[in-house]
């Protein structure tokens, strides 16, 4: 319990602002293909965790390290395509991205996603968490495609 208490993030306005800035900068770098900028925002021990609940495709083990995380996310973007709608939201006190995707040929690809990040003490992203299974997203209002 002591380790949890030490690592616990209290969502102050400052933490919210730093998290929002890092999330926006990281996603912007990914979308524009600026790998160096994306990598500079990640901690050396960054971990990407995804939860597909056994219903949709998700990484079965954590993706660890800046290069592996970026490669994984870029390949996922190529396979999945851009979201048809997305919004930044405050979830559990911190900024997150809520996205809706067009149904593709693969029914195992998620149609909805929530992505949030955790920052380390230096302000770098040390964890990315994506929830992909609809059952766990029932309480989240999804953006409506225009």
UniProtKB/TrEMBL annotation:
Q: Superkingdom of this entry's organism?
A: Bacteria
Q: Give the Gene Ontology MF terms in alphabetical order.
A: sigma factor activity
Write down what this protein is called.
ECF subfamily RNA polymerase sigma factor
